[in-house]
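User: Here's a chain of 135 residues. Predict its fold as C-alpha cells.
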Amino acid sequence: MSFVVDSSVWIDYFNGRQSIETETLDRALGREVIVIGDIILAEVLQGFRHDRDYLQAKARLRHFPIVPMLGETMAITAADNYRRLRKQGVTVRKTIDVIIASYCIEQALPLLYSDRDFDPMVAMLGLQPLPKLAP
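Assistant: Prediction complete.
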C-alpha cells in the first residue's frame, strides 16, 4: 500500500513525540511505500534548527519517492476545493493543507495526518485518511 504522511506527523516523528500517528508511521517504515510530496519535504526540512539534524533528516527522507504536488492542474483543483470548503462554512487555515489533500484525493492516496484541519476534507471532499493503529 502507498500513502502520504503529512508534515505534522513527520515533524512529531523527528522530534521524538509519541502519538498514534507517529507509531503508525514507525510501523509502516520499511513495510509500506511512503510517498513524500515536495511541499511536505520543504515544510519538514525548513523547521530544523541544527545543520546536523537537517542533514540527517534530508538524507533519510530522500530514500522515499518524492513527488511534485503542485502544478497548474493541481493548483486549480486545490483552489476549487478551498472554495468548495469555504462555501460550506469551513475556512482552512493553511493553503498547503488543501494542496496536500487535493493531491491525495486526485491520486487516490490515503493520508496519515494529525492536523485536525484535514477532518473537514475527509468529510466534505472525500480525502481518505490512513487507518491508525489502535491505542
